[in-house]
Amino acid sequence: MIPIAKPQIGEEEKKAVLEVLDSGTIAQGPCVKAFEEKFARMCGVKYAIATTSGTTALHVALLAHGIGPGDEVITSPFTFIASANSVLYTGAKPVFVDIDPYTFNIDAKNIEAAITEHTMAIMPVHLFGLPCDMVPLIELAEKYNLVIIEDACQAHGAEYKDKRVGSFGTGAFSFYPTKNITSGEGGMITTNAPIIDEKCRVIRQHGMRKRYYHDELGYNFRMTDIQAAIGIEQLKKLERFNEIRQANAKFLSTHLKGVVVPTVPEGCKHVYNLYTVRVPSGKRDALRIYLQERGVGSEVYYPVPIHRQTFYMKDLGYKQSFSETERAAQELLSLPVHPALSSADLEAIVATINEFMAG
Length: 359
Description:
By secondary structure, the protein is α/β, with parallel strands linked by helices. The chain has helices spanning 11-23, 30-43, 54-64, 82-89, 134-144, 194-204, 225-255, 284-293, 310-315, 323-331, 343-358; strands at 47-51, 72-75, 93-96, 119-123, 147-151, 159-160, 163-164, 170-174, 187-191, 208-210, 213-214, 268-269, 275-278, 332-335. The protein has 2 domains: 11-232, Aspartate Aminotransferase, domain 2; 238-358, Aspartate Aminotransferase, domain 1 (Alpha-Beta Complex). Helix 5 (134-144) links the parallel strand 4 (119-123) and strand 5 (147-151). Helix 2 packs parallel to helix 7 (225-255).
């Protein structure tokens, strides 16, 4: 079976973990600090704050900007549900706008009409590893005095106009095993604002600035040194991993027939956390079964948009319809693109899809 994703864990990561275990400092410690510093440099920002997951990174980032009950955050309905749920965790309301049909990212043209007196932030999601079109988002944020919280959980090392994602506002990243680099679980917040850096660190650790003195409500969202040790070694490999993903994506885009391959707008560096094609004419689900039967993994991201999830419709009363989002949910299929793929794997993926689409 050619898997849809495969974490690349080597001897360097194993050695780093054993060193942490031998050190006696297993919880948040010097490895977390080092990982934060190295990740900040990678993103081109002053500060990075490690957390337990990408979800908690988003949650803490929102709280650090003072977002809470009565506020609204504009985001995409076509993403993993954690993006919107992190807004709910603060007591605020996610407000959805439709996506661009080519990039599958939030369509900037739809945002201004959704802004109200309650809007506090825009949360663009750099979906599948492709950066959002940030210039119009920054212009809207400046015009309406809004915060930008970048959901970069799938976009480690991606660039927009030669600038790394996570550096346009306050960024949030995930280190789940399917991401471009992993620490098993874990997340990271990025920012250039010292006040946001300090606020995130307080929220992450039970509201403490001084040990056992709790100034505000906080959480236990700390990363361990074990995870950070893995993350440091993975970060060393990020550029190589991304280059392999890009080469694999180029091969697929060059040779696949009958499907719409990913669009990469000028000025964007796509890092292909997922390689996602559009399968026309209602053939997507049949193609997925065909691939599965022939040993090729694939996945539908995401079969049910957030605004169509039972909890959002039944309990929260979401009733909107977003045509491009709902079309994408019916037609998109993600294929293996990870660094562990061999030339034979890539050829098998292409041959299997082309055979089905020609049938």
